[in-house]
Specification:
The chain is an alpha/beta fold. The chain contains 11 helices and 14 strands. It has helices at about 5-10, 20-35, 50-60, 95-105, 130-135, 175-180, 205, 225-235, 255-260, 285-300, 330-340, and strands at about 40-45, 70-75, 85-90, 140, 160-165, 185-190, 200, 215-220, 220-225, 240-245, 250, 270-275, 280, 285. Strands 1-2-3-4-5-6-8-10-12 form a 9-stranded parallel β-sheet. The chain has a 3-stranded parallel β-sheet with strand order 7-9-11. A two-stranded antiparallel ribbon has the order 13-14. The chain is elongated, with a radius of gyration of 25 Å. About 30% of the residues are buried.
Length: about 350
């Protein structure tokens, strides 16, 4: 009896002998096997007061945690112990497709008008514990400040995507520690907020990143030195396939010098984009110059001559977008909200 699931115990008579229970056990196994394909593996918890209660109920359920591989969570306080959790999306902003799906499911609930509990603010409390740290393969943070990090070493994290463009505060030093702990990263997207006192410098962040299989790196609204960025890119020249940067500036060095040092030096780089205007001494480059820069970095040839928007105000030449294949556990609904290169 002790080996039987609780739901079976509650529906049988205690005086039955084991021989009478044998057919029941076989039926239970067959039912469980048949039901596995229908277990929900991706769960939305939207921003209303019961979300944290629902989270705890999910984690205490005897079966559901075995099959969850993705949680998309809006509330800030998140404690997770799902053994198969691989992908973590923490966001307070949802795309139109997601909202439409949510409204179809919860059409009788006025979720947008429900009061917010005081514990569901914009500050992030990421899943804690070494078990979770070992299992996570993707983390996506959208409009959530990173101010509490106790998740340990992210040894198996493959994809990290962070958009803080609408946050008031810059990331703390714990953000650098989080990235540096992920020694197997393949995807790194970073978009920092633009503030009146300038862009956030990523020199210390890049100085600690030395990866074996970094395939894709996208940067937006950051400040970096020419030497630090060149060192970072050349170190990953044998693995990096896609690189994009926009809305950013060099606080030391110059863009033409950087492009010159990178030209034909990236062995397998297939996509290079400056999709939003780079800042050079307070001026924006023209679209045609940035298009020429892409060709120059990837294929070499004559070095492009700098041209600025103030001299050519109508130069909006379209530049090729980076083509991105969504990894397992990531959705285009969230890609388009975070990634400025689509």
């Amino acid at each position: 009896m002790d080996a039987l699931p609780l739901e079976i115990k509650e529906n049988i008579c205690s005086f039955l002998s084991p021989s009478h229970l044998k057919p029941l056990r076989l039926v239970s196994k067959e039912f469980a096997s048949a039901a596995i394909p229908y277990f929900i593996s991706r769960i939305f918890l939207f921003n209303h007061p019961d979300s944290c209660i629902e989270m705890n109920a999910i984690l205490r359920h005897p079966e559901i945690p075995k099959y969850i591989n993705t949680l998309i969570v809006d509330p800030s306080a998140v404690q997770s112990n799902c053994p198969n959790l691989k992908n973590f999306i923490l966001t307070s902003i949802h795309g139109r497709n997601v909202l439409r799906k949510r409204d179809d499911i919860f059409h009788e609930l006025l979720l947008e008008h429900l009061p917010h509990s005081p514990e569901t603010g914009p500050k992030s409390y990421l899943p804690s514990g070494e078990v979770v740290a070992e299992s996570l393969q993707t983390i996506t943070l959208n409009n959530i400040e990173i101010n509490n990090w106790d998740c340990g070493i992210l040894r198996n994290l493959r994809h990290l995507r962070v958009s803080l463009r609408d946050c008031g505060n810059r990331p703390s030093s714990q953000f650098d520690a989080m990235v540096h702990s992920a020694t197997r990263l393949e995807t790194l997207w970073i978009e920092f907020p633009y503030s009146h006192d300038g862009l956030y410098s990523i020199d210390s962040l890049f100085n600690g990143i030395r990866l074996k299989k970094l395939h894709e790196c996208l940067l937006s609204y950051v400040s970096v030195s020419e030497d630090e960025l060149v060192d970072f890119l050349l170190h990953h020249a044998q693995s990096l396939r896609t690189f994009g940067i926009g809305g950013s500036c060099l606080h030391k060095g110059s863009w033409p010098s950087l492009f010159r040092r990178l030209s034909c030096q990236m062995a397998i780089l297939k996509q290079f984009a400056t999709s939003r205007q780079l800042l050079a001494n307070g001026h924006d480059y023209t679209g045609s110059y940035l298009t020429a820069v892409t060709r120059f970095v990837l294929h070499g040839g004559p070095e492009p001559v700098e041209t600025f928007r103030e001299d050519f105000p109508h130069d909006y030449e379209n530049r090729p977008n980076i083509i991105h294949v969504v990894q397992d556990g990531l959705w285009k609904d969230y890609d388009r909200m975070i990634k400025p290169y689509l």
